[in-house]
Amino acid sequence: MTSLDQPKASGYRPPAVPDVDVRGFWGERIDAVADRTAMILYERCVAAGMFDQIDPARPVPPVRMPWHARADGSPDTVNVQMFWDSDVAKVIETAAYALYRKPNPDLEAKVDAIIDMFAGLQLPDGYMNSWFIRMQPGQRWTNLRDCHELYCAGHLVEGAVAYFHATGKRKLLDVMCRYADHIDAMFGPRPGQKPGYCGHEEIELALIRLGRTTGEQRYLDLARYFIDARGQQPHYFDVEAAARGADPAQFRHKTYQYNQSHLPVRGQTKVIGHAVRAMYLYSGMADVATEFGDDTLTDALKVLWEDLTSRQMYVTGGIGPAASNEGFTDYYDLPNESAYAETCAAVGLMMWASRMLGRGPDRHYADIMEQALYNGALSGLSIDGSRFFYDNPLESRGGHHRWTWHRCPCCPPNIARTVAAIGSYMYGVSGDGIAVHLYGANTARLNVGATAVTLTQETRYPADGRVAIAIRLDSPASFNLALRVPGWCETAGLSLNGQGVEPGEMRGGYIHLTREWRDGDRLELDLPMQVRALRAHPAVKADLGRVAIARGPLIYCAEEVDNDADLNALIVPADLSQARTAELPGLAGTVAIEIPVQREQWPQRAGKLYDSRPPELARTTARLVPYHLWDNREPGEMLVWLRTGQ
């Protein structure tokens, strides 16, 4: 095989995870994943019985998870046990990044044993899915709408690529190439092929990743086919339902909007349906747009991006307010206490934003990637790496806590693999330049065309906005270096080798520096972090008369442990000039915000529910912590959107 890891001049590709050594804020979180989370995920897969299903050497196990029920109470076609291959695949991917971070012979041996199971499970024609080989044999490829076969294949592809990059071992990669070859033979527009695609998108972006790693153009072409086929008429899900003797109209969610197959992708203008599926679809579309230079896909994605970020996204970067469809409802419907905002959905938004940057640096996307990363996604993992949020509300009365596991355990390995792979989100590399999308202490080994470049960032970001970037080269080289100036930063300072310089050319919110770089060149970027209040569009009824407090990329919240109960009694002043910051050792040294506020003294009214008199007000100080850190200490209330004085 050849490699397509070298980027083309026409687009920007992320570096492989092993090419970026991460330290500081993200290094500590990667260490938590490597030290604890990866093995915890493995052990909980064991406890759930997942390997009993996957290992062909064991007896076929019973169905352990309950079937979903239809409205009439009868069993549905869907059981979350069908998706176990995907959960194990994300555990493999997490373990791969953990092994790169820190050698762990025990973890590596366990993953090698899982890979042996999948290799033994694979059929001679390349097909490999534990549910349809062992639990429901003879039913493969009969219900793409509901049963996640291609979704599971996609996550296994991603796990295989990650494990190959991290360890050099290619057994699972070879297994998944054979499976991809089988899928390529099975699906497509040619005579005798099924013109289908998956009800849960994922295979599209995975095939791009596989094609970039192996150099096999067929995998890229197949990803493009799955994108182009979606939503075409006659509708494939109708055709396959009729073929298995089912009524096409009788399925759990009743509408193809749920899985974004209601229209061909280029005709979709509203972000709708299941949030994770939507994000994975748009990620695949963006990857295909980058690989094939397809402006029609990019133009469609721009419309969808505006629809999501201007009408349907929480201030945390969380998306999908409703539990009923794990997704979207209507414009500006963003309740706080009942917010679903699945961790996987915020991870998916990050993925989509990262892939939109494949067409070139643009703060429009990188800012949202950062917002979703530090807030809506990272909240899904506790500091010690042992507990997880599935849904991420912006208000809690004290009863919402992280899980040790979940009946549908997609989020724990998804946030773990994302944290462990964060280095690949930080940069984009083209044939003639490097874009720095995210700031954090790290050393990156990148290739601009034939030129090897080592970039080292030294910074306390996100606690501090000062970033020093050192450049190492074997010999002088000319290329473009693009540095993002976040939208939250009002004024940025820049120096080169100790001399202040004008930011120069700004395009898409990035400072573009094109020059002959020399070994030892040093840039210093200053991004002042002011405490600021964010207000919501008046159509977001839940946030009327309230503000969210932010500093740098972080959204902050109030917790009962710092402020006592009745957080809704706190009133934040319109003027935040008296706000102060202080390190909080109890939360890994995070920067807390302390604000002089007023507190309503309603409890002094002898339990009255209503009163005609205005409440008494007492002066106090509110302490706020980054939202992603809530529920890491004593349990209690939490609130993001605070009342404000006018």
Descriptive report:
Strand 11 (505-507) and strand 12 (510-517) form a beta hairpin. The protein has 17 helices and 22 strands. The chain is α+β, with helices and mostly antiparallel strands and 646 residues long. It is globular and about 75 Å long. Strands 1-5-6-7-13-9-10 form a seven-stranded antiparallel sheet. Strands 15-16-20-19-17-22 form a six-stranded mixed β-barrel. The chain has a five-stranded mixed sheet with strand order 3-4-8-12-11. It folds into three domains: 17-66 and 75-426, Glycosyltransferase (Alpha/alpha barrel), CATH 1.50.10; 450-526, Immunoglobulin-like (Sandwich); 532-644, no CATH class. Helix 1 (24-48) packs antiparallel against helix 15.
Primary descriptors:
Immunoglobulin-like, alpha+beta, 18% strand, Glycosyltransferase
